[in-house]
Amino acid sequence: MNIAPRSYSVTRKRLMAAVASVAVAGAIGVGALTSGTSPVLADAVRVEAPQVPGFADVVERVSPAVVSVKVKAKISPAADDGSDPSDDQDGMNNLPNNPQLRRFFKEFRGFGDQDGQGGGNRRFSHRDRNNDQPRPVAQGSGFFISDDGYLVTNNHVVSEGSAFTVVMNDGKELDAKLIGTDPRTDLAVLKVDGVGKFTYVDFADDSKVRVGDWVVAVGNPFGLGGTVTAGIVSARGRDIGAGPYDDFIQIDASVNRGNSGGPTFNLNGQVVGINTAIFSPSGGSVGIAFDIPASTAKQVVQDLMKSGSVQRGWLGVEIQPVTSDIAESLGLKSNNGALVSSAQDDGPGKKAGITAGDVITQVNGKDVASPKELARLIGAYSPGKSVDVTVWRDGKSQTVKVDLGKLPSSDKQASVDQSQPAAPAKPDTLADLGLTVTKSENGKGLVVTDVDPDSDAADRGIQPGDVITSVNSTEVNGTDDVTKAMTEAVKSGRKAVLMQITRDDTNRFVALPVAKG
């Protein structure tokens, strides 16, 4: 009889507890709605991680020294539609005479690459009808290197210009004059006068720059002045075929059209390189940019500031790389150096006794690693300077003293008195080399009439019409001379012979393996 009341009591207690719970929840809900106070929230996520140093301090100090460079040029009279009839670089002349269509293409092609080197400048449409005044046609970047207004940019930025304006970091525009240019290194110097002292930057010792170092590029991409990008040094000593003094620093900082002439800084705020070109299939940055090294720029800029031009020493020889096969054929222990393919008749090298077949290994005691290195070493000396040139000749080193000449405005080509006449009826065969040859009509050398396509000669680029003038520095006038040179090479333990080839009045050397007897 006690069970029922106890069950009722338990049930009643549970019911009351549930009601109390609902009441409490309701009270909390009403309080949240009526009290005006916010609910208590959990703390936001925050990670106490080591802070990576940024570039803000460097950028703040160097930015006032970096400028945008506006270039103006006089153009021919505009046509009725406002275009320049002599300038069809955008292909506008081939479009139908539809103003809307032409306007679309002008807007679409608004950012062009006038310089063609990828570092690029911005193009402006030629709309000013007053043809006596220069119009803006391009933009690039630059930076001050002295407090009295000297600044550096690229030659390809200013090469078409007749008037120049620099835009400061604060937006102020100042007129500038061109002091000098050096197309061979793509450098130019401008000068701003009479505006007080400028914030300027200095060149770094780029020999201490290592692959992997952080760098900061500041410039004027697409006309957006004062733009900062960062990256690392990707490679050193790049040769991109831009000229005889290629020795570029490759960086992966974003560099685009309009960055040309702008500086790349190390974390000390010193200029390690000058933006000059990018590699890009699309025209925009893909993370491969090339800088003129500070060491090159510093010397060139000093010369331009002093005299407006650069005077370089001239050796007067045509050179080519020393391959492993060529080194083997000459008895060299390495493939360092520059092989002289010809010495120009009016050049100082020939006057000093340098001849075709010599391998230049040193200049004034400095090792020559490659033809590019030789060009840079010689170019660093002034015309008239006497230098000691070490050559490898006839299996030993010799040193000749050369009084350097003045580098001509355009590279001179050696004059080789060789003709390539039609072959006589009975050619001879050099079976071991895969060549068929015949005597030249003037009796000097052998004309190649046929090349076995499966031979080493074909692999090394020898073609019918080439003239073999010497083998291992010995003149050849018949197949017997070639055979004798090959036999002597085998006896000396060499695996190849060095042939001097003339093609289109140009000499080069080719190393061909010889059969082991």
UniProtKB/TrEMBL annotation:
It catalyses: Acts on substrates that are at least partially unfolded. The cleavage site P1 residue is normally between a pair of hydrophobic residues, such as Val-|-Val. One of its GO terms (cellular component) is periplasmic space. It is found in: Periplasm. It comes from Mesorhizobium ciceri. One of its GO terms (biological process) is proteolysis. Its EC number is 3.4.21.107. This is Probable periplasmic serine endoprotease DegP-like. Residues 81-90 have a biased composition (Acidic residues). GO terms for molecular function: serine-type endopeptidase activity. Belongs to the peptidase S1C family. Substrate binds at residues 156, 186, 258-260. Keywords: Hydrolase, Periplasm, Protease, Repeat, Serine protease, Signal, Stress response. Residues 75-99, 111-139, 404-428 are annotated as: Disordered.
